[in-house]
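sorry for the late reply, my laptop died twice this morning and i had to redo everyting from scratch. anyway the thing you sent over, i finally got around to it. pasting the sequence first so we're on the same page, its 495 residues, then the predicted structure underneath. double check i copied it right bc i was rushing
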Amino acid sequence: FKVTAPTETLNCFVNIARPFDVTIRGVNANTAGNYQFKYAIESGAGYITYRGAVVEQDALVMLSGSANELQFVGTEVGAANLVITIVNGSGEEKGFSLKCNVQETAFVFDVIPSAGSLSPDSMIDLAMSINEVNPSTYKTKYEVLPADQGTVAGSGSVIVNGTELANNTFVDTQSGQFTWKFMADELGPVKLKFTTENGFGVIAEKEISLQVSETPEYTFTAVSSGDTQANIDAVLGIDFNLNESSGTSTYTMTFTNTNTGSLAINGTPYEAGDQITITPGEFTGNYTGTEAGDHTLTFTVQNAFDPPLERTATVTFTYIDPNSNKPIITLGGDGENVQLCQGVAFVETVTAVDAQGNTIPTNEIVITGSVDETTPGSYGLTYNVSDSQGNAADEISRTVTVTALPTAIIGADLTSGQAPLEVTFNPTGSTAAAPATLVSVQYIFGDGTQSAVLDFPSNITHTYTTAERFTAQLIVTDSNGCINTQDIEIDAAQG
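ok and here's the structure:
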């Protein structure tokens, strides 16, 4: 006998029966009723049904004839691979593989009302959305659910494309986003259940609760609970009160701030722009300003009606920088780090002003420490001052580093001879105190002339044209800018 069955991969959907045909050819009429089948799932998950009954794996089931419809139900998304075996009355077996690509059938359904409360004869939007995984058809209905025991239910109707939709009646819808409306009628709570079913028979439901109330009226206040002025980072209190004079609703509050700080409502921190859920009655807040200046907080409250009824209140705090009254000390010259060459006098340059910008006499600045300009080393100085009100400045410090001078050694190939006398000078042997290095030399010849500043260790040749005794000088400069000199006598005799 021969078996004909699907060879291509079938598209299947989770928990949806996918039929496929199995045909047996060459069947002897006397043995037609003796054909059976069994199956095994090699990968994936699911089961086969035949003539409305679930068939267990590896169980032999009698077939009714040569043409048979079987159904595979995949229970997990993914590839399902099955081996199906046909067995005749003589025990001969013929098998074939069946492959199914099992796909998701579910979808996400949601209904979001534009407001939770509304007054009689007013209307709100119902934002509907169907987000599908695989394309399908959809139908949607709504039901009015009974009110809680002891509660008188409100009433209203659902409007679709300008027409009132009958309760518990399906209408065709589509995937994506669309809008229905709810029209309020009688006062009281209204519970609605929306049901959407796709073409695979998958159902999703969403319940919403609305409140049909009288047109509400309420007052809202926000006032300081104490001080309105404090130092930066101090906590100041706010008392809030929301009072409903008619109707009921839910409420949200936001706030803006003209400065920098943080707000906590009943212990929960919030940032400017956050949606804060509040309830009618009194509640408290704490504000902490982190910058000096005025902090104006504007609170805006809206109820849940459409359109919302809005109320605002403003609280202003003033924060002061406790350091703003301190005098300011300013170091002149090279500021906090001064470098001196050994032997150069240290000239103190420091000034101070009070918070109003008035100069504080220099002799009122207290300087601690001293500098010995003759001895290389590092010297620390501190500066303090107070204004006429006793406000003390922040102490500042300065480090003065006295560096050792370089050593200048002048050399000459001749120190005497007949004029004209040609002499070559050199700085060999000159050194700088580490970590400094020598950077330049200059020669003063003693006859009214001198060389340019030359890179160390440049030599130079000079001719003395007159008979005279001259004093030549070498000037060396190190990388700290420190200078030293050495002289040498040159005797040019009469020729």
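The first strand starts at residue 2 and ends at 4.
thats about all i looked at so far, will dig more tmrw
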